[in-house]
Amino acid sequence: MSFSEAMAKGLLYFLLCFGCAQAVIKECWTLKSKPKDIRSPLCKNPSSKSAILFGNYLNKSTWPITPIGASPNPDQDAHCGIENAPSEEIRGRIVCGQEALPHRFPWMAAIYQDDTFLCGSSIISKDWILTAAHCVEDLQHEIHLRVGAHDLSKPEKTALTVAIKKENVISHPEYNNKNLNNDIALLELLNPLVFNETVRAVCLADARNRERDLVGYKTTVTGWGKTKSDDQSHGGVLNYAMGGKVISNDQCQRHYPEYIYPGSICTDMSDGVGICKGDRGGPLMIPTNSGQYKQIGVVSFGKPSCLSPEPQGFTRITHFLEWIRNTTSL
């Protein structure tokens, strides 16, 4: 796709989705749905007490890049978190879960068991993958990781599938599947990845980010989840959106009293940005003023409508830096 075609496509998405998103948001926000546990396939159990939803952002607005001062972790690759984007002008035109340009976010990896798509995840080094612990609990055997991929529905020359043994799946030792506290896991690769234009690591938030709670920062989320609240499919092309702002844990706890603790981070829904089933385990990111992305969270929980006005919850990376470093030696 040429630059002009990409710009035209981005503008078209903006014009079409802005109107439809408003209508859908109005309809969805009037629903008084209770939290549902969607770890079951289609969220059919209305009596569930869990409040877990995973997915794809849907935004009705455009947002500028919000800089943050800290430089990347010196222990990570100096080229971590650099997106493959054609132009600054395309950034911010993120509406209705817009399809990402192929390999724009080269740290994205898809987790499969057998032929079933389980979760998204992020590459944090040549040897390690980061995801949510609930994505990999109760595994029966090895899983497979697909890197360098954009469209999971078809073969791609750039995509590589690697096996990860069950014993190389390391969930946080204090993970609680009842309230999703410590919902984080690391996957160790048998052989290191070869970094190139389509496979690269994301930067992790570092200790300097602990000193700021990041409230008010605009975020980006990527994933292969649903793009509509009533859509049962997922696992197609990689989508992304920008716009959800970080809110305080106190504010988030009013919506999820059993789920919020210091290891949580939440974003708001004031601009119609929501997560849907299929994006679980993927990264919550902020752009730095050096042009790199830092992962500050892992998709963990939310309400069952992609466009619910309730906040959505993530695992806070900075709360687990010591565990990540002790486990990976990064």
From TrEMBL:
One of its GO terms (biological process) is proteolysis. Keywords: Disulfide bond, Hydrolase, Protease, Secreted, Serine protease, Signal, Zymogen. It comes from the Eukaryota. Residues 1-23 form the signal peptide. Gene3D superfamilies: Trypsin-like serine proteases. This is Peptidase S1 domain-containing protein. Its main location: secreted.
